[in-house]
């Protein structure tokens, strides 16, 4: 419960800080990104603490229903749903990887361009890198 309270305070603080600094997008994003991540963690902790036993029982019953059905139609449904779940997981993995790559390559490309063009100036990196 203590961890939940600490993460909740951090999430609220960072999200409020982001709203206060909406006039500067870089500063706002530096606050919103970790703030929303913490908010999702709080949501996960609430779900876990609130319904851990019920969730475990529900998953166990669902697995039993899916695997006990030996009919062809039931197995086809199981394969179809598993395929959809795998594709959505792959989409999530690919989108996260692309975002990470873009944030890592952007400062390098900007720095290379400035160096090749002999332009002075400091590069403003996202998220206080």
UniProtKB/TrEMBL annotation:
Its Gene Ontology biological processes?
Answer: signal transduction
Asked if the Swiss-Prot or TrEMBL record annotates the protein with the keyword Cell membrane, the reply is yes
Q: What is this protein called?
A: Or22c
**Record Pfam families:** 7tm_6 (PF02949)
- Record keywords, A-Z: Cell membrane, Membrane, Olfaction, Receptor, Sensory transduction, Transducer, Transmembrane, Transmembrane helix
GO MF entries: odorant binding; olfactory receptor activity
Location within or outside the cell: Cell membrane
Q: How does it sit in the membrane?
A: Multi-pass membrane protein
Give the UniProt entry's GO cellular component terms.
Answer: plasma membrane
Q: Which organism is it from?
A: Drosophila pseudoobscura
Q: InterPro entries in the record, alphabetically?
A: 7tm6_olfct_rcpt
């Amino acid at each position: 419960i203590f961890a939940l309270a600490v993460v909740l305070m951090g999430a609220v603080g960072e999200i409020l800080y982001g709203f206060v600094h909406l006039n500067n997008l870089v500063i706002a994003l530096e606050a919103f990104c970790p703030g929303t991540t913490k908010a999702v963690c709080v949501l996960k902790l609430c779900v876990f603490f609130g319904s851990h036993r019920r969730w475990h029982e529900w998953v166990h019953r669902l697995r039993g229903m899916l695997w006990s059905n030996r009919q062809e139609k039931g197995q086809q449904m199981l394969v179809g749903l598993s395929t959809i779940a795998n594709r959505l997981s792959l989409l999530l993995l690919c989108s996260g990887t692309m975002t990470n790559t873009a944030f890592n390559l952007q400062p390098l490309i900007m720095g290379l361009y400035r160096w090749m063009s002999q332009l002075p100036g400091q590069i403003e990196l996202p998220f206080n890198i």
